[in-house]
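Researcher: Final request for today, and then I'll write up notes for the group meeting. The sequence and the SMILES for zinc ion follow.
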Amino acid sequence: MASFEELQRLQKIYNYKNPLVRVQNLATVQVKEHQLPIVGITIGTEDRTKPTFGLFAGVHGLEKIGTHVALHFIEVLLEQLEWDKELQDRFKKSRLVAIPMINPAGVFLNRRSNANGVDIMRNAPVEAVGDSPFLLSGHRYSNWLPWFRGDSSQMEIETQTIIQFVKNEMFQSEFGFSLDVHSGFGVKDRLWYPYAKSSEPFPLIKEALKFKAHIDKSFPHHVYAIEPQALSYTTHGDVWDYLFDMHYEQNKNEKIYLPWCLEMGSWIWVKKNPMQLFSALGPFNPIQPHRYKRIMRRHFVLLDFFMRSTLNYKNWN
Ligand SMILES: [Zn+2]
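Model: Predicted protein-zinc ion complex:
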C-alpha cells in the first residue's frame, strides 16, 4: 500500500484501545496500483440521538493543512482521553464523528480533485440558483480542468461516503454541527454557513446567527469572518447543501443539523512568503514551520469551541 504522512497518522489512530473510540474503513479508492482507505472515526457514546459534532477535511487533496488541523485535534483528544476524567464524561453524553481525509487519492497525488478528476465539492446533485461564476462554480466540460462536476446521478465514491456517513452518524442526533475544513481562498479565515448554491437565506439562518452571536460573546477575540458561503461565490454540487436540504426536509426544526465550512485564508501565508507560489502545495498550505504550528494552535481553539457548544447547545441556543 502507498504510504504517506496523513495515511500513517490515520493508521496510528487504529491502535488507540479506548472503549469510547471506534475507527473504520468506510470505503476504498483505487489510485494506480494502490488501494487507499477512507477512514471514519467516532468518539463517544453509541447513542446516536446525543449531540454530535462532525469534523471533516481533505475534500480537496491540495489543501493538506485541513487534514492536519483535523488530525491534530483528534490526536490531542485521544491522548487526553487517556487521563482526563471530565473529557471521558463529556463523551458519555456526546459524540465526535470525523473523516479527516475524505479524498485520499487527491492527497496522495497532490491534486484538488479525486483520481477521476472530479471535484468532490461540485459532485452532488444540487444546481446553483441565479448567476454563478464561470468554471469555478462547477462545470462539465472536461476533467482536465479544475472544478469538474462529474456525474451527479452516479456520484463519486468519496461523495457517496460523506453522504452515507453523515446520514448514519449525524441525522438521528437531536443537535448536530459539522465543520468541513478547507484552505486557499482569501486573506481571512472564514466560517461559512449554507447556502453555497444561493444567496437567498437558508431555512435555519436564525440558528446560524445565534451561533454567531454566541461565538462573538464567548470567544470575543476570534479571527473568523462568519458569513454565508454564497457571499463569496455560489457553486453547483455542494455536498453540504445537499445534506442540509435532505435533513431539513425530513426534520424541519425538530432536530438541528447545520453544516459549517472553515475556509482558512491561505493568501496571507503566501503574502508573507511569496516563494511559496513556486511550490504546488504553496498556495494552499503554510510552508514555514512556525506558521504551521501557529495554524494548528489557532484552529484547535475553534474546534474545541464547536465541540463544547454542540454538547451544551441547550444553554446558549
Ligand atoms: Zn477546498
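Model: The longest helix spans residues 289-311. The chain has a mean pLDDT of 94.
Researcher: Thanks, that's everything.
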